[in-house]
Amino acid sequence: MIKTHLRIFEIVLILMMISIVFVFSMGFFTYVGQKSPYGFLFSQTLFAVIGVLIIVVFQLIKEEYCYKILYAIFIISLIACMIMPYLPASLVVETKGARRWIRFLGFSIAPLEFLKISAFSILALTYSRKIDAIKRTFKQDLFLLLPTLCAYCLIFGYVYVTQNDLGQCVVVAASMFVMALAAGISFKHIFYLFIAAIACGVSLIALHPRRLERGLEWWGSIQDFILPMFPEGIQESLRIAHASEPYQISHSLNAITHGDILGQGFGLGVFKLGFLSEVHTDFILSGIAEEIGFFGFFVVILLFSFLVASILKLSTYMKTKRDYLFCIGYGSCMFFTFLMNVGGIISLIPLKGIAVPFLSYGGSSMLANSIATGILLSIFKHSQENYVGSM
Fold first, then answer.
1. Which of 6, 139, 355, 364 has the greatest number of C-beta atoms within 10 Å?
2. Residue 387: what pLDDT?
3. Which band of pLDDT confidence, cut at 50, 70 and 90, is reported for residue 34?
């Protein structure tokens, strides 16, 4: 048990160090308005140091206070997400028409990152009180989940409309379904709801011209690989003529291919030189693959696999259902976030622009995940101490 606890902390530290090194490397192509590579180095190092301090400090805080902190973060970040569209331009950062960051003390903070990790504490509390392992009908399970489903649609529907961030909404929804399954909802019923959620997601994409265009671009990039699996008549009806591959995906795949097995060498990647505009954030894995090769890319995948597996293993040692569900929720969130980023940069799924936890440049993601990790380890530590003390 202690080894699992320490392993999580060790993997997070390794990922933070990798992040500092490669954010510095990816920052050597500068354009108007961008920080210097040394500015990236300073900022990411500062975020990592604060993140480590957060994880360590939370080990000293008792479990109930940890949850109260999460509830407070949920309320504050929810209010911030609600009012952000109405704040003056001087207080927000707008990207491609979407307001996702609030300026605060010289930094840009993304409230959605904190809303996401704190939402799992609310879901864990709700599910632990209302759902058990008793066999129920679909109608009964739906009735149990209806309040949280409605709350999700209201909150994250608003987030989707105002921030145009479908990726984060999908991650939370997928994690929410996994938590419901772990709480005691029938797998068959979860599957029905999952199919309904996919239908809703496809409808949202179809109704949004830009997302529909991106979806068609993605299909055009993979259709030559997928369509041969279907009969010829179906192939022709599904084929998109004159399909062009999205330039970011094209450069991402070329960067990964250019890296080969061992890479071009640290700092020697060329696709960061203006081809991949978000190489230090959304496409950092592509930049890593080019500079240290498929071998390095595979090592990072292994690290995240061990991290997610360790978090899920830690859940089996939790003493209360609420703690168990929070652990499952955060572990699922890490898994789906990483899966969507990797799937996006290799064109397996449409690109969603999701940052890699503990690896991509940015303080909000680093600090939010550090809070979640610190609270998770604190809950485990104090639950074990209470358990031993009661023996």
1. 355
2. 45
3. low
